[in-house]
Every structure is written in structure tokens, then in C-alpha cells.
Amino acid sequence: MNDNIIASAEYFRPEESIAKEYGGDTEKILEVMGERFMKENPPRAYQLRTFRSDGIPMDRKGRVLFEFDRLLPDAEEGDWGMACGELWCALPKSSGFCLECTGRTLIYLNGVCIFDETQAVPEKKAPVRLEKGFNRFLVLCLKTSEGFGCTLRNHMPQWEPCAYVTPFQEWRGEAGFLYTLVAAGEFERRGAGKIMQEPALWGKYAEATKRSWYPQSPSVREGAGSGERGICIWTRAVSKEGREEELLQFLARQRDQGSGIWCITVDGETDFANVRPACAHHILWFAEGGAQREVSLPEKWSMTLPVDAQGDGGRFLLLEGLTKEAEEGLRSWKPNEREFLEAAVRITGGKQFWQTEYRNMTVRPYVESSLYGRWTYPLGVTLYGLMSAGDYLKNAHMSEYVRDFIHLVIKAAPYAAYDRERYGFPGIHQQMLWLDALDDCGSFGSCMLEEYLSLTKEEKAGWQEVPEIADRIGTYMMKEQVRCPDGAFKRRDDTMWVDDMYMSVPFLVRYYRMTLRREILDEACRQLLLYRKYFELPVEEKENAIILSHMYDLRQPQANRIPWSRGNGWVFFSLSELLMVLPGEHPQRGELVDFFSALCRGYLHFQDERGLWHQILDDKDTYMETSGSAMFICAMARGIRFDLFSCEEKHEIANAVRRGWNGMIHYGIDREGNLYGVCQGSGWSYDRDYYRNLKWNLNDTHGIGIVMLAGTEAARLNRE
What we know:
The structure is a single chain. The chain has 720 residues and is of the alpha+beta class. It has 3 domains: 14-38 and 372-423 and 436-719, Glycosyltransferase (Alpha/alpha barrel); 47-209, Jelly Rolls; 231-366, no CATH class. It has 22 helices and 28 strands. Strands 3, 5, 6, 8, 10 and 11 form a 6-stranded antiparallel β-sheet that branches. Strands 12, 13, 14, 15, 17 and 18 form a 6-stranded antiparallel β-sheet that branches. Strands 2-9-4-7 form a 4-stranded antiparallel β-sheet, with no helix packed on it. Helix 8 (377-393) packs parallel to helix 22, helix 17 (565-579) runs parallel beside helix 19 and helix 20 crosses helix 22 (704-719). The protein is globular and about 85 Å long. 48% of the residues are buried.
């Protein structure tokens, strides 16, 4: 079920609700929801793939640069450049791609033409459908005197990063596109349609296409380094019935013969007597530049790539041009695949990363899971909910899942910055590095800091990347984020969205807790009070009660006066985040508590008889929206817990919280822990029908975490 739901309809039969299965046992319900999410999104390392820097690149904006004039220098006018690559999609989805071209260009997706341009276009967008699994792109550009090439990007590259893979089996999953030349005569004779529909082009083997594809097989490096110092070679030695004593004796002779190798470590040990018996060992050679051809192993031991990477990466990895400090750091490192991304960048100060034995080839990580290991704002609030529920339930599995997830992300951050600097568009952490809007950084950054602040001093030693990431985000919010003349945050298109309060305030609250810089806390207060001025909508039927418009257009200037449920929830929830921390003596606390109370009265007025709130708060013909409802429940419960209401109000609000949570478990969550009624990601409009027609998603990450936060707060309230 994924259709718009009217108020009189239900998401599932009453007997299928989680309340029917577990009654009012909120702790059990939270556990079921958390376990469902973790089971569907198990821990997964980043996918490693070989990548050739002399192939088709991507720039920082996520554009694939089909520069056929550079790639095919011998092409003549009338010839065509053709490129082929595949894009992995974890789930089927609608998307869009943008083309820029200098002349005649054809682009096919899964055999269907999505662009057919006869002349240069500055940028053109096409909606597409991506299928689960690999989706094949074919790109054709005609060489003319005007140019020879095009660029292709996803319409939202920071949100939908595209990691392309070579399409033919011979390349073993190497990253990137392959390209070839189509002679003018062949194209004119056969036509684009016939060429594009060739079964061989959509098959597994390049040989069947009878074309020469580039880049061709990589060549082994002739040497590396300056010849003086500075090269480290890393391999995994695997036994082929060889004896361990023979391996260690062989390596000792290499080290002692003075052949340019001055140090060898085995599993991080320079003293081979400390090496534990095993059928495989990680070996590091430290040698003069160009000495890698001299490294070898005994006959019954083989050299294999020390990390699990798709594509042919050869037998070893190497670092060149090492400083004395970096070399010393590597000698004390116990090599392992888990630290593949972080160790080299950390030890070399972000200047070097592992290359393969092949010229112009390295190994790069790509995030190819649907959710695990990604940095996005919906995942920020999802993990926050899991974290809070795990702490409340004392559920070690849930808490460890969140910690490991965040740790994986932050440990790879320095490498991601290196990758972006060297190759343009990184395979991981695109949104973290994009840093062009509050969406890019605030939500996940807040979740990261919530976990970091819970660590002991000793534990924080393994999270040394966090302060740097937090400072980068904090600097962006405090100094670089675009603003109105009065200092209020705005978007680059001169609009303001209430969503941005969640994208900024919770992070600023935790950044203040980390730094104790008062101006950061003051900024959070300032933004919320400014946003009240722009977005406030009085509730005529109730005294001192307000709700909020979703957006404000500074070009008009006016608000759209449409109270979208989740947008209101973002502000109310963010206010609760601030008021839990704001000192009682802060000069703006009274105004903020008044803002919070006025919103609470407004939301109480629009609560449905079933306990939830509608997609448009004042439109009962719209469906019951669960993510906004959860934020109202959570914030109201926090208001009681932190004594933000008068004694007269507490009773009414406590009843509203209980009715809200009861409605959630009866109408929004089924017995398997699936969450219904979460509005899809929204743009904005002045037209109410736009919001009425926004569909809801099943198990959307905009809602899972906040529902678990609501449940946690409801459980705390019931315990009191």
C-alpha cells in the first residue's frame, strides 16, 4: 500500500496493529521496531573497487566528464565517441539526470533513449526509472568542429550519489566507464538505434561487441619513489602448503641483504619471533623507491591484494614518497583491512593513499548499501531515535549498532576529503563534503555529537575525527550559511523552510555542549525566534495558540500559510531540544518557552480523535501523518519532563501524549514493526493540493527514528 490515504481510511486492519500484538508494552514495541530496522539494514563495510585515474573522471559536482576530445585524440569529424557504464541501485526508484553537451548526443538507459540532442544544450533534465540492481548507461557523442563530448549527472548528486561500474565481466567490477570509437561510416550505415540495441552491448563480455574498449589492461609500474626513501609495500601472504619458518627466514634474508629493503613487518611485528602462527599474514616492506620488483615470497606462499576489492588490483598496495614520520607510523601499525581507509590518510597527514602495483590505478571505497554507512539528514534522526531507545531500554545490541554505524562514517571522513581533493567526486560522504545547505550537515552532525558526548574520555580517543568534522559544520552554520538581512537562515533560492530549524538547532545545541561557546547557543535561540516572526499562524479558535506555515518566499515576500505536519514537527521538536539544555537564566528563555507553549496549544487543537495529526494540520481530509505526529508527541512529553508547562496544562498535555502514542501503535505501526503514513520528502508550494497529493512511504527514515523517540518519551511519562 502506497497511495494517499484519506482520513476515514486505515493503513491496515485493526487486528494487524502492533498494539494488538503487544498491547501497551511500549518497551517491547520499541524493541521490535529497532530490530526490524537493524535486520533490514545490517552492518556493511564500504565496497572497495579499483579505479583508474586515466579514465573518464567525475568532477566535484558529480558530473561525469565525457571528454572524448581528450580520450580519443585520433577521432575525425563525423566519428562518434561511445561510453558504457553501469549504476548500482539498491532499490527501484524514480530519479532524474541532467545533460550538458556541445553537439549531437544520444544517451540510453537500459536500452531506452533518455536524451536525443541534435545541438549543444547548456543543461537539460530527463526523468528516469532506475531498477534494482545494475542499470546500464550508453553515451554517444558526435565529433564536430564545435566540440566532442558531454557531461551527465544525477539531478541531486549529493542526495543520490552515482557510483558507476565498468559493465563487462573482464573488468571484474572496476569502477568507472569504458569508452570506444564508433567510426562515422559505421554509424551512418547502421544508425544509432541498431548500434544501441546490439545484444552484445548489453551482455557480459566486451569481446562479443568486437570493439576495442578503453582504458585497456593496466601496465605494471616501472618503479616508484625517488630512489632514496619513501616507499611502503603491503601484501597478504597466503600459504600454499608452505611452512611458516620458511616464510620468516626468507623475509629475514631480504631484510638483511641490503638490497634497498631496510625494514619488514609481519602482522605489525618487526621481531619475527613474536609472529603468531597462521595460514595468512600481512607483510609490509619498507624500501627505496623503485624497489618493489625485488619483493617476493617463497615458492609455496603467494602474494595477494591485502583488501577485498572488486577489479584487478594486482598483488600488493604501495605508498610512495613517505616522510620519516609517516614511515615510523607505518612501522608501528598492525595492518588490517578494517583500517584500510583511515590508517594511510591518518599516518601520512592526508597526503598519501594506497596505490596498486599498476600504473594510474588505486583502490577506492563506494557506499552501495541502501542506508548503512551513509551520511544523510533522515538517517541522522533515525539513528538518534535508535540511540535513545537503546539507552532507555538498556539494549546493548541497539546501542552498539548505532555506535558502529556512526564510527564507520566518521573514521572514513578524512579519506573522503582526500578522495574528493584528488578525484573530484568521492564514492562516500558526498553530502558531508558538499556542505551547501543545512540539510547536508545539521541532522547527521547532531546525531554524531550526541553519540560523541556520551563517550568517556578514553573512548573519545578513538573518535578523534569528530571535533574536526563538528568545527567544519559549526563554521559553516555560524559564518557561511546564507541569511536574510536580519540574520535568519535562508536557502539559496531566497526561500525559507521551517525544516531548517531541525537542520540547524539540534546541532548547534550539541556543538555548544562540546565547545561551551555561548555565542553558539545564542545563535540557536536567535534562529528560532526569527522563524516565529516569519512563519507564525494564529489559531483563531483558540486563544494564545499558533501553528506554522511551511515556507516563506522572500521574493514576494509572504508565507504559503499551509501548515504541513512534518514541517511543524521539525520546529516543535527542535524547540524541545534547545529548552532541555538552555539555562534558566538565559535572557531569551522566557520568549522561547512562550513560543513552545503557544505551539503546543495550537497542536492540541488539531489533534485527531484517534490521537494523531493530519498531513495538513487544519485539513481533516488529509491522511494521518506519523512523522509529524511523533514529533508532537515527543516534544509535548519532553515539555512535561522538563517542567515547561503550568500545573493546569500538564494534565491535558499528558493525556494528549498518551492518546497520541496510543493512536500511533493502533493506526501507524503494524505487528511486524513496520511504520506507515510517513510523508515522502517534500518541496514547497502555495497550492494546498500539492501537499494533499504528497504520498506516504512505508518505513521511511524521515519517521522511524522520531517515532522511536516519541515512544521513548511516552514510556518515560508513563513511568512517572
